[in-house]
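Retry 2 of 3 after timeout on previous attempt. Resubmitting structure tokens to design endpoint.
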């Protein structure tokens, strides 16, 4: 084993290692290269750009050992975000741990729609099942005059969300522990948003997500269980003409629209993510409660 490796040789080693493990991680060659770069930059505590500008730089043996341990964990499918402890969402740097779901790029669609539905200067919004706080904090950053409340049943998740709020100077976001509407009491909101678990417990897709909190991924055998519970409970917590906005699975749009209609919602619409798949659906409560 070389005692004095360079950035370039160690990066090549990392890319080769992850590509060899791609059958486990389902990574493309490009994704393997990106992951190897992210992990090496993290191990070296430098920006990714420095890997390319200084490929000849020597890497200390203890850093190389740490990098190889990270590679081994990534090869089992552990998300890069858990290995680095951070993930960017809506251009916000978020701390993440295995206590929370890794924020996905497609979930930024919820933020886009929330901003479109909540354009007024003042209002109240609630994020149910906030996890790392990604949606609530992104919305709060864009709507500084809104009151934003976020809930989660997991205290460990709320600790991460509160830490992110402090780091982003968004401590005005209020966090409460509890399942869905339970922490809201009799309060009503202009906007309720949620990215609940929507993968059935027997779905093979869960195999590739074994490192993430199961509670945030699946509601059990009924994939629509959490979505249905939120939709049916929403009218009691929305103001007249208030909006409910939900993320869901790519094949669940029709079922979610039907549930919203049964709950008395109007102006029901689904929106595609960047892949063209229905990913978010919204509905508005009637003027009369």
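Retry 2 succeeded. Sequence:
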């Amino acid at each position: 084993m070389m005692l004095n490796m360079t950035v370039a040789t160690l990066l090549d080693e990392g890319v080769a290692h992850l590509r060899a493990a791609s059958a486990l991680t389902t990574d493309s060659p490009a994704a393997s290269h990106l992951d190897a770069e992210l992990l090496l930059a993290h191990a070296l505590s430098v920006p990714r750009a420095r890997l390319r500008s200084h490929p000849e730089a020597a890497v200390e043996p203890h850093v190389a050992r740490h990098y190889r341990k990270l590679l081994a964990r990534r090869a089992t499918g552990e998300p890069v975000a858990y290995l680095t402890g951070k993930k960017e969402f809506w251009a916000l740097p978020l701390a993440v741990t295995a206590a929370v779901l890794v924020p996905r790029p497609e979930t930024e669609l919820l933020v886009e729609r929330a901003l479109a539905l909540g354009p007024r200067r003042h209002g109240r919004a609630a994020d149910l099942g906030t996890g790392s706080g990604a949606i609530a904090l992104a919305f709060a950053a864009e709507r500084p005059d809104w009151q934003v409340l976020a809930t989660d049943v997991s205290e460990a998740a709320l600790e991460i969300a509160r830490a992110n709020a402090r780091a982003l100077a968004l401590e005005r976001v209020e966090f409460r522990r509890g399942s869905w509407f339970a922490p809201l009491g009799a309060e009503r909101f202009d906007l309720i948003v949620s990215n609940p678990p929507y993968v059935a417990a027997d779905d093979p897709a869960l195999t590739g997500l074994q490192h993430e909190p199961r509670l945030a991924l699946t509601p059990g055998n009924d994939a629509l269980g959490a979505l249905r519970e939120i939709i049916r409970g929403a009218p009691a917590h929305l103001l007249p003409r208030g909006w409910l906005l939900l993320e869901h699975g790519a094949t669940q749009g029709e079922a979610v629209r039907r549930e919203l209609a049964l709950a008395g919602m109007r102006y029901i619409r689904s929106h595609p993510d960047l892949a063209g798949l229905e990913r978010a659906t919204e509905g508005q409560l009637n003027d009369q409660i």
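Attempt log closed. The chain has a mean pLDDT of 94.
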